Every structure is written in C-alpha cells, then in structure tokens.
What does this fold into?
Amino acid sequence: MSDRPDLDAWIARTADAPVRDVPFETMSGVPVDPVYGDGPYPGEYPYTRGVYPTMYRSRLWTMRMFAGFGTAEDTNARFKDILRNGGTGLSTAFDMPTLMGRDSDSGWSLGEVGRAGVAIDTLADMEDLFADIDLSAVSTSMTINGPAAVILAMYIAVAEKTGVPHEKLAGTIQNDIFKEYQAQKEYIYPPRPSVRIVTDMIRYTADEMPKWHPVSISGYHIREAGSTAAQELAFTLANGFAYVEAATAAGVDVDEFAPRLSFFFNSHSDFFEEIGKFRAARRIWARWMKERYGAKNERSMLCRFHTQTAGVSLTAQQPEINIARVAIQALAGALGGTQSLHTDSFDEALALPTEKAARIALRTQQIVAHETGVANVADPLGGSDYVEWMTDEMERQAEAIFAHLDDLGQGSILEGVYAGIENGYFVGEIADAAYRFEREINNGNRIIVGVNAFTDGDDGDKELLRIEAEVEEYQLKRLADVKLARNDDDVSRTLAAVAAAAQDPNVNLMPSILDAVKAYATLEEVSMAMESVFGTYVEKAII
Amino acid sequence: MSDEPQLRIILAKLGLDGHDRGLKVVARILRDAGMEVIYLGLRQTTDSIVAAAEQEDADAIGLSMHNAGHMTLAPAMVTAVNDAELGTPVIVGGIVPEEDVQPLLDKGVAAVLGPGASAEDVAQTVRDAVAAAG
It folds into this structure.
C-alpha cells in the first residue's frame, strides 16, 4: 500500500486487467509499476493520461500499415504479406479515381489508375481485394471519404457472399467529409448532402454493424496540408463535435454512436508538442462529450485514435534518414497513447513504398513496442511540468478556435464548421501556416536535415516502386468484362432506387446502395446517381 | 521590382489529384517574387488550362503533381499547348522521381521542380523557362 488512496484505488480496480505475458521490468531487471504520478489516472475521466487503465501492458497498439497499389490482386498479395509478417490489421489505400468516385474508364482517370492505391470499380474488384481473407477474423480500415458509402456497401457485399454476417465485420471507414473541404479536397457533393450520407452510415452501422467504426475523424490530412499542431487538434475535434450534432439532430442518441467514433492524428517531428496534442485531444473530447453533448456512456467520452507518422516530414534528399524521423514520430505516438500506428516508409517522399521500405517501417514500430520499454508504463511522461504545460497550451489554443467556430455558427459547432468551409476560414488558416513553415525553411530559421543543412551524402541511388501502365490496361479490361457480364436491367433499376432514396432525406441510403453494388453497378454509376440529386461541389480557389 | 514586365503564370492541378499545399506555397512564392499568379486550383483539364492561358495571355503554366500521373498528364498538357499554338512553357513541380525528369524534358516539359526547391529556385526556374520560350 502506498500513502496515495487514489492510486491504491486505481491499482485495486485494475488488478484483474489482462496483461501481456512479458516481464514488466527494465532491461537491467528493475521491476516497474503500471503507472506513476498523479491522478486522474489512465482510464479515468477526463482521460488525459490514456483511454484505458493499463494501456499497453494489456495490449500493444495495433500496428496498422496502410497499403494499396496496382490491381486488387496486387494489393491482396500485399495484405497477405502483412498478415504473415505480424501486422494485425489491414489498411487500404485507394487510387485517386476511386477516391473521387470515378471509374477507371472515366476521362478524369487518365494516368491515375492504380497509381497511388488500388483501383476499385465494381464489387468484382472488392472480391479480388479480399480474396482468401476471412473478413470475420481481420479488422479492416478503408481510407475513403466522398464515395465511402459505396465502398462500405461493396465490403458488406463481399462479406455476405462469403457467409460473414454484418455484425461480425470489424473495422473503420474514414468517411470524414469535413476535412475533405478543409484539407484533402476529395469531395464529390456539397457539404450538407455529404453530411447526410455520413449520418445515414452512422445510423446503418449503429443498427447492423456494432463492431464497425463509421467515421474516423481525421486531423492527419489537415496537418499534412500545412496546419499547426493546435489547428490539427482543434479542427479535428470541431469536426467531431459537428458529426455529433448532425447525428443527434437526425435522431440518433449520442451514446448509440459516439462510442464508435474514432480519430486519426498526425505525429510530426516536434516531439513534446505532439505528445501534448495527443493528451489534450483526450481531455477535450471527454469534457465536451460529457458537458456539452450530455453523453452518459463513458465510452462516448473516449478519444481513441490512430496515428500516422508525418508523410510531409519525409525528405526526398537522403531518404534513408527518414527512418530516424519515423522512429522519433512513432515514439511520440506511443508516448501519446495511440491505439494504432502506421509508420511511414522512408522512400515515400519519392514514390509509394517498396516492399523493403514498408518492412523497415513496420520493424521500426516493433522496436518501439518491444525494445524500448515505453509500453511497460501508461503515460510515462505524465506529471512532467513541461508535458503538462504543453498539454494545457494545446488545449488553450484549441478552445480559442472552438470559440470562434461556435460564434460563426451562432451556438452550433456544426453550423460553424459549415460556415468556416464556405467562407474559406479553414483553407486560409492552413495555407497561412504552410507558407510560414516554408518561409522558415527557406530563410534558414528552421533546419531540416538534408534539405537546408547537412546536405552532403545524397547519393541519388534510389530504388523505387514503379507502377506500370499495364495496371491501367488490366483494370480497363476487367471493368469492361464486368459490364458485359452483368444484368443491365438490374443495374438501371437499382441505380434509380439510389436516386430516389437520395431525394428523400427520411430514407437511409445504405440499403439501396448495397442493392446497386450487388448488381455490379460501378462506383461511378452509383456516385453519379446521387450526384444527380445532390449536385457537385466546386471550391473557391483561395491562395 | 525591376522594370521588366510582370510575368503572368497560371498555376493548376491537372486531373483529380487534390494535394494543393505545394501549389499554394508556390503561388505565394511567385507573388512575392513579383509575378502575377492566376491560380486555377483543383480539378483542371488540359482544355481549361489552355483556355485560361489564352485568355490571360500567360507567360508560363505551372502544374503540380503528386499522384504519380506525371508521365501521362504532363506530356498531355504540352501537347494541348502545342495544339493551341500557344508556345507557353509548361513547368512541373511535385513528386517526380529523378529518373523521370529527363524523359519529361524530352517530351517538351520546360522544367521540373523537385521537393525541397528553394523559393529562389522556383522563381528563377520560371524566369528561365519564360526566357527560353522567347
């Protein structure tokens, strides 16, 4: 017993928590406690110190490596590699046409098919993508937003065909449309109908797929587009609040869906700022969910998040040194208490990763997990004056941004986010921060190793992954074959049903989309059926 | 500012690629360097860019490419400019592997700016490309 009743109570509560079968001691054999310092402890409101009491003692973060290139068959082989190599979750990157709801044979897709991810035109491609993988036994993350409903429907259809019931499907679809208008720019429809689609997916998964995370609220892209850490934090959580307001306005109880909202943050190179950001995210989300949105279920208050190291920090110069950057960023993610982690490959400033580079990236986080000892203690930096100050500072900056959005929306964060999209607030703030950063590098006030200092040693000997043009030819033939083999009447009928559902905001879009993809309607056909009702979005060009 | 006429440059993303951070930074760099930037932004086609180049009497076209489509899209832009008999130099920036640079230049691209190019490099590359195009 210690002289700390709150710590004793925490220890008593966690006595039965599962623990990994490893010695919790230092390399030199010194045993270490599960937590140090002051409460509230990990797993206690407001969860600054972690969403779970025993954190990585019970279970390491999920090592989720994003992959996808070429044809669905190519990516399927990479998936199987990842599973064999000890990866514990699948993560899918789609090519640009797919991300924009376009088919491989669209004029817009020229030069982009299978280049930056896998091409999915119809259910047939999704069947190839997950061939010989038991969908009840994996958790799948799909990084897609504008056409997310169609891709999710295809995934459900594959499961149905292989006899896996909806309720066994585990995974995440990014489906965070707000940050598309703010940063990544992969939108199709205007914001309000897009949010209706998201809301329909939240309702559908709440009813049918209890293990599915229908939205991964993503700051990653906001940061990659150039925001500061505090802007990433604030814009992301504000988007989260906006989805909560949208779903509750649609009649779903906050505790019915909020436990399955998850987040996705960037881990950049400023070590303590990142850790402060992660800690602040948990505290802010818990407080707002409880106090502003009246959540009762503790799980609604947990900001569980995925982290990816900062792609934008990778340099094309001396690319091997990116391995060191990734290791440091991965360590910040672990010390920040992430639930899953993607480590970038060192060659990603140049091209999609080679197999070797992707393996080194996975090995990097395995070193953090298994060799450094950081997984032995929950929130090991908690209580450091500097880390606590940084956490408070991140929170303070974020709250100032929430206040601005609340004003813009006259008491509604949802309306504030819509307004900030329409008036260019988000893109303007991000562009300003990106330009400031670039100026600092350019005038030498900020050192980037290998770029504006220590530039010797760039030998230019770089082995890169090349996606050959054959992918496009293969995919076009595949699509043509599917179109030839399908029943055109079924396609027209189901597409008309999608358009009809789009016209009635009281009807959930998901069942009609599922019917259409099962009839092998293409991604673009389904997307255009909705576009015929919802219209398109064209952003005001602001620099 | 010198007495030289102000250069007018079109900046655009050709096709579906939405990565516009680099292009926006370049827009500000060129503006700071005294050029007039006509920022077309996202989701442009070779036709929309040629039309803007004609209408705005542009001295150069800057394309930003991050999705590995440069070997198809950049030559298509050069062809469209040639077909319209504009003679406007096409400059490509973004993620272009070194080994693709010479093939792009061979296909008529005026210059390729890689990641890490300084502000001075960017502005000078545009000036040189415009000068070379006469």
